[in-house]
């Protein structure tokens, strides 16, 4: 094994660059090093001006999403040796405005998230004195997969629909809405219907499936969206056939 | 620029979000803001794995949870705080359930609990082994439903504004634009978490640089019990990734290189095939980490490129149990260590995990500075004393986050005075200082990373699992030198947009303050208690040191240490007994 | 604050195999529509009497019509296969409290397809 590998890192300095330019750095190629370790090496020893986000480096905080050799990845969970002998091209996540180097603006997602009401909605909240809302392990399993989203934005980066139409609510937000819709304790499905079944909601999704392929946590947002399409379609038909009965 | 809020919360993790919601619920008329250097769901609460302790089972009692906590703390906690904590923890965890937290369940639909280190009963609520992740996301998503909570995401606080002994807000930089703003407030709540990054090998995320501790310290508040740094016995070598105590609670064994369950040699009980509470692998973290050091000295550990390790054996638990209750551990071992714990031994070694000490607060979360509150790992109430029990920290964030939020809301409602001109002037000074640094630092010649690495090595060598007068004095001296070099640190990045080098420099300054306060407290505590083990004073000394260390910053920048008696209500100091 | 927004390339769908497959699947709906139109033309021809039906058959036998229909069939197959592949992700079926494994749902779809085809074949060929 060679003892070094080349990282070609996209640099974008607002005010100086009109578009990102690739800059090459040589970093040690070590057994356990993630791409993130390579970037930290650059930052610490070669070039302090490189900007990127990272925090937990154990694949749970969702900060360090980047495009590695064309694929959206968590850079803390992507290893240098898997790309040897290199070079490895590291770019910011696609489909988001680039603020600086590898840092993208995820404000759009942060604005959309509350619109799908990703919190437990109850008609009446029971007093705490009455204890927990009962939920069997099977009921927990119904939504558990969709509760694993770490908001890392890899799915938005992989989604060509989002690339073409920035109004699309998007995979993670819809999966989180489904996480609550499918929670036996939740009563907010009606409130989420309007946003989810709007043209910018589930019907924008054409089931490319890349979001689920990119998801590092196995959430399967594409599946969540298709499931909701079935629900929404069933409801629409029921509404046509039995206009008076509400659900 | 200047804006005003009634309550400013620094930090958007478990404690910060809980505090913000508590403010909004206590007094909806108050304008509350959360200022965080990362998006709230990135906060380090997300990494907590094993669970959250609160009495739930019929055979358990608040007194037993309190006693476990008190004895686990080596009697250095305040027992009134512990009693309040254990009494309120169940309600807080239940509230999280009502907000949607996906707690693991029993077949009948009720909350499930698991065993944990140092706990005599099963009382640790869990969401598989991603408890912190689910807890944080539930809080974050619930906070989204409070549209009145204003968020400053990716804003870095550089200073707490103080006038006449009272906090009046903060100065912060917006990372994306470099905009510097004075955010004034009637009260400030610090919830920035711990400071594991002052050590080289830690489970802590990159963001845990002790900012809040240093901010409060510089503002004039006292720090408490800073010498008590928790080493978690089981971290993955190289990455330092935490392998939760729940692995041992579910039945995992710790083996030395001979395949021997070595904890039996350290007064932690006798091995049994199934886990026994408060015994062996379910002993407290301080004792387990200390046992590791002795195993190294006896040559009974395995050497790796990343230091000596022992092994965690989960193979006998089987794939089914591991996938149901420890799926994240399996994922982490597979991704980061290339090991499948179902079939292979997991190499582990002690790793800096948690700061028992922090900003001195009373039982309501109030610090020694008027209008300044603190909660979570950044604070020291203290319920953790000399050693925190696993799964007490998440409920601590909730219980004391709520308490601080409520107290701050009451204070802010009562004292809505105009912000003094002196405070605004301070804000302008800080804005000028920060803008000046970018230009001034261009002249520097020391690399930030070099100073940081040397500081971390100094801390590990000087104030590790075992320390003594000489190692601490040496560390004190080295930190002083690093402090001088810090003045000559270079910032090559002159951009105002997302300048992470400027932030790294500011963080390093905070970490040096924290490191110095750790050494100052450790040097003066001439006894061994919990996580503070002095080889030159190997015994606990209740006559001299059944007291909290308080360190205050002096005008010359050094820390002055005084002592505050421990509050004892019902459990007089005794021997810590595990496994017998 | 100036930001950089990466333009969407005109041929973005050639960047990845999955994108290409997705565009082809989207395109398949055109051929689904064509098949429906073709069927309606057939029904119309039959209802107009034997001469009209013969003209329809003659036209259908021309090389270009055969080519169109072969292509249409390929796209229809793609449409069906991907549609069936998606089924278990859109449908969560529970039997006796347990989730039916995805493979069984896919298998059920293919089985239903086979049965329907058999019925149609029986109707046409008897």
From TrEMBL, chain B:
Instruction: Give binding positions for substrate.
Output: 232, 244, 353
Membrane topology label: Peripheral membrane protein
Q: Which InterPro entries match?
A: FAD-dep_OxRdtase_2_FAD-bd, FAD/NAD-bd_sf, FRD_SDH_FAD_BS, Fum_R/Succ_DH_flav-like_C_sf, Fum_Rdtase/Succ_DH_flav-like_C, Fum_red_fp, SdhA/FrdA/AprA, Succ_DH/fumarate_Rdtase_cat_sf
Q: Name the catalytic site residues.
A: 285 (proton acceptor)
Q: Chief location of this protein?
A: membrane
Q: Which residues form the FAD-dependent oxidoreductase 2 FAD-binding domain?
A: 6-394
Q: Which UniProt keywords apply?
A: Cell membrane, Electron transport, FAD, Flavoprotein, Membrane, Nucleotide-binding, Oxidoreductase, Transport
Query: What cofactor does this protein call for?
Result: FAD
The terms under GO molecular function for this entry are: electron transfer activity; flavin adenine dinucleotide binding; steroid dehydrogenase activity, acting on the CH-CH group of donors; succinate dehydrogenase (quinone) activity
> Is Membrane found in the keyword set?
yes
Q: For the Fumarate reductase/succinate dehydrogenase flavoprotein-like C-terminal domain, which residue ranges apply?
A: 452-578
Q: Which GO terms describe its biological process?
A: anaerobic respiration; electron transport chain
Question: According to the UniProt entry, what is the EC number of this protein?
Answer: 1.3.5.1
Q: Any keyword Electron transport? A: yes
Location in the cell reads:
Cell membrane
A GO cellular component entry from the record: plasma membrane
What positions does the entry give for FAD binding? Answer: 11-16, 36-51, 211, 377, 388, 393-394
Q: Which reaction does it catalyse?
A: a quinone + succinate = fumarate + a quinol; a menaquinone + succinate = a menaquinol + fumarate
Which family, according to the similarity comment?
Belongs to the FAD-dependent oxidoreductase 2 family. FRD/SDH subfamily.
Q: Which NCBIfam families match?
A: fum_red_Fp (TIGR01176), PRK09231.1 (NF006686), sdhA_frdA_Gneg (TIGR01812)
Q: How does it assemble?
A: Part of an enzyme complex containing four subunits: a flavoprotein (FrdA), an iron-sulfur protein (FrdB), and two hydrophobic anchor proteins (FrdC and FrdD).
Which protein, by its recorded name, is this? Fumarate reductase flavoprotein subunit
The gene it comes from is: frdA
